[in-house]
Specification:
Length: about 60
């Protein structure tokens, strides 16, 4: 079973952004440039496996 939470963030002082896959979902992301705290801009919903099966994305 895969547990993965993606988080998008920005660092104001560095004027950079990033995305992280957080292991437990409780960790706070840090800036890859300065190592400081960041502002989380999104925590998209990610489907996770139930019984070993990950649903396919809906066709658009």
């Amino acid at each position: 079973m895969e547990h993965r939470v993606e988080v998008a963030w920005t660092c104001g002082p560095c004027e950079v952004g990033g995305q992280d896959a957080l292991g437990g979902g409780n960790d706070d992301p840090t800036c890859w440039n300065c190592g400081g705290p960041v502002v989380v801009t999104a925590r998209p919903t990610v489907r996770w496996a139930v019984g070993g099966h990950v649903p396919e994305p809906d066709a658009a």
